[in-house]
Amino acid sequence: MTAPLRPASLPPAGLPGLDPRWSRLVQAPDSAGVPRTWHLLDTAPGAAEGEVAGTLVCVHGNPTWSYLWRHLAAAASAAPVPWRVVAVDQLEMGFSERTGVHRTLAQRTADLANVMDALELTGPVVAVGQDWGGIVVTGWAAGELARSTGEGAGRHRAGAGGARLAGLVVANTAASYPADAPAPGALRAATLPGVLPLVTRRADLFLRTTLELPKPRLAADVRAAYRLPYRTAQDRAGVEDFVADVPVGHDHPSRPALDAVGEGVEQLRAAGVPALVVWGPRDPVFGERFLRDWRRRLPRADVHRLAGASHLVPEDDRFAPVVLDWLGERVASAPGGADATGAGDAPGAAAADGGSDGPPRLWAALEERSGDEGPAVVEVAADGTSRAIGWSLLARRTRELAAGLQELGVLPGQRVSLLVPPGADLTAALYAVLRVGAVAVVADAGLGVRGLTRAVTGSGVDWVVGVPRALAAARALRWPGRRIAAGPVGGAALRATGAEATLLEVAELGRNRLAGGTPLPPEPAAGAEGAVLFTSGSTGPAKGVVYTHAQLARLATAMGAVIRTGPGHPLVSAFAPFALFGPALGATCVVPAMDVTKPATLTARALADAVAAGGATSAFLAPAAVVNVLATADALDAPRREALAGVRVLLSAGAPVPTALLQRVRELMPLADPRTPYGATEVLPATDVSLSEVLEAGEGEGTCVGRPVPGVVVGVAPLDADGRASEEVSAAPGVTGEVVVGGEHVKDRYDQLWGTTAASVRVRPDAELAGALGSGRWHRTGDVGHLDEAGRVWVEGRLAHVVVTADEVVTPVGVEQRAERVAGIARAALVGVGPRAARQLVVVAEAETAVTGPVRRTTVAPPPLARQVRRATGRNLAAVLLVPALPTDVRHNSKIDRVRVAAWAERVLAGDRAGRLA
């Protein structure tokens, strides 16, 4: 046996998060047949099949060691049915031997196979890897598959050792890498001649830089634990060699091995091995192109993006729960533990809508009315003038754009971001994208620059269709995708946007294609992806919500029933997403003059002009738009008041709308009984209620949002003493808990958020609810509320905003409503401050300036006002704070950011100078 430069050893006790009982030394031959000693973590050495659910074989990358997997090891050991975790330190790394051998990818893969053989694993085995360890473990997994199936033929089965490959989990790693590409990201500088040994071996700069990547920053003792096995230049020789082994170029010695890994991934896909890809989007090394490659190679893999996470993904406290949930759903629950296949980001995603059957596609109404010269879309300018686009023109332009997109190279399944204001251009572009089988990505500028960048980049768009300003931002922010310009632009301005064509030019391409006799492609299947619609981001990063074509059609039909619109009933839509559904319902859609990303910019005059221009009988406004319409109503002249008086259906959704506000609307629209349908981007509508029905229901705890719409069932998952919602769901009245909605038009899944999707559908409905739902889907809304004896749904706030004290669980909305009835309080937010054992309730409120006078800075409410608030709420509030304004979400301008308010209030009451809140 060749004497090691440094023998393997056990890590010292006391490293944060690492149980010393997990460490062991194992002997096995390396790839050259030389006996070597590895250090590894093993949470259940000697466990027999049946004592654990299976084994996770975890491989670290460079420059870390098996310490990377301590969180997963702890969580897996504590699971109800534990998983054994075996995390090996690769040779030359961690506390394994330093042999002085420059190890290539092929050698590392063979080394791993040998040490795993020495362990004689049995039962289901899941390969887990990060960074270049992900490449090593993927290569090993493909080899195990081939070995256990006779070169990969047929389904995988138990190998000679009794182990069977049951799954693959990878995090920020590669499935392949182009031979002609430079070193990825941050590795580029490290691989420069003369730089590599300086930053990797002679000094530990490469190691320290890697440890600075996680957000939030790793604790000092954790960083020290990572550096422990790499204290000397000799210890770090393997770090240098690992970087040098990155296969850049056609002639690199490890290029054949990397190509073999790519081929192995194809074998894993063909064998139906379940796969989970967990991704940190802020990784400077393994960026979005690597994730796109994984999705291309494993189209049925489950993907979960950890918003805000960087390179060392297993350090994120969300990583282990997602992996264990996935193991339970995809591996442990599968027959034989190894033959389940993923369904693309979701448990059972899209399975119910496969094939070509299903409801009509969204563009069906366009084609039915292609001979109608009546207005389909009416665009209203700020001066009150309008432009009407007829059904026949809109249908023809949609077909031309569809053919032109096909000519330009837009393929079925590709993603197209649409950054165009509501109007005829957006409507035609959207329906054209859907018609060719591409996937429309709809994320509006109301998300802000960071939110919109995260949405477009994270969606992996292939094309961006946008107005020049949006395309200029796309270029400056390096958004992915080829670009098409909307609106009047040409010459130098067009080149400045990076666009290769305008929508007019695309339509011309399509017109020529159709004139030449080339037909449009077959209609996409009902179960194919149709759109990714983004949530408002009011309770965290905006999430992409995936709808199939069938689900989009059902959603439009459900909305049409609530809006009471269709042929002959024009609709004014001052809420961008719903400007797109009018044509699908055969209804004229009128777009008012406003900034659609800021609902509060809609004035009463602009609304009246839109109603008059389209002869609209219905209007859909965000709550903030309703507020501003009422605030600007004094500027209306008699003709405009007369136009508004003809509106018969007014809807407002997206946030709770105060009853007093709806009553004031009747002064402008006496024929309308204002309606406030309830739902979310994931399921809209879920319930519906009119002002008359709200008044009939009377006062209650929270906001009455009415009864479920046809085809929808609603239940409640009760809260426990810690404010957590149960998985048990029923329609029992008077029980406070998370509102759970089921229906045929519920979302298909969240995009690349497998764990979030799984959590949102994890329910155990009682027999009555299950029977009522039929073949529909469930969705946990994240709202809390209850059902009353009449079957009406009352919303009491968001689950994330529930305040848990030492003695009770308090939902916020009812308390806030009672506070807002006090003269001097315009709008209130209930939050909790302090640790749970001593947590106190605090009301932070906007003052009613007519009563209190202007509030220009944070102040404690005067004692008489504070006493009134305490008496009205029935709560022993620790404080009542007055602020100039409460912070709201960016899309609706209505939802209060209570998480921000709570953090701010805690700082204020602790004596810090917290500054302005909004």
Structural write-up:
This protein is an alpha/beta fold. It folds into 5 domains: about 325 residues, Alpha/Beta hydrolase fold, catalytic domain (Rossmann fold, 3-Layer(aba) Sandwich), CATH 3.40.50; about 150 residues, Rossmann fold, CATH 3.40.50; about 130 residues, Rossmann fold; about 90 residues, Luciferase, Domain 3 (Luciferase, domain 3); about 110 residues, GMP Synthetase, Chain A, domain 3.
Sum this structure up briefly.
It is built from 30 helices and 37 strands.
List the helices and strands and how they pair.
Layout: E1 23-29, E2 35-42, E3 55-59, H1 70-78, E4 84-88, H2 105-119, E5 123-130, H3 132-149, E6 163-171, H4 187-190, H5 195-202, H6 205-211, H7 220-227, H8 237-244, H9 255-270, E7 275-279, H10 288-297, E8 302-305, H11 319-332, H12 364-368, E9 375-380, E10 386-390, H13 391-408, E11 415-419, H14 424-435, E12 439-442, H15 448-459, E13 463-466, H16 468-476, E14 482-485, H17 491-497, E15 501-502, H18 503-515, E16 529-534, E17 544-548, H19 549-563, E18 571-573, E19 589-591, H20 604-614, E20 618-621, H21 623-631, H22 638-644, E21 649-652, H23 659-668, E22 678-680, E23 683-688, H24 691-697, E24 703-708, E25 712-718, E26 728-729, E27 737-743, E28 749-750, H25 754-760, E29 764-765, H26 767-773, E30 777-787, E31 793-798, E32 803-804, E33 809-810, H27 812-820, E34 825-833, E35 840-847, H28 849-852, E36 859-860, H29 863-873, E37 879-883, H30 898-909
Parallel strand pairs: 3-4, 3-5, 5-6, 6-7, 7-8, 9-19, 11-12, 11-13, 12-16, 13-14, 14-15, 18-19, 18-20, 20-21, 26-29, 35-37
Antiparallel strand pairs: 1-2, 2-4, 9-10, 16-17, 17-28, 22-23, 23-24, 24-31, 25-27, 27-30, 30-31, 32-33, 34-35, 36-37
Helix pairs in contact: 1-11, 2-3, 3-9, 5-8, 13-14, 13-18, 16-17, 20-22, 27-29
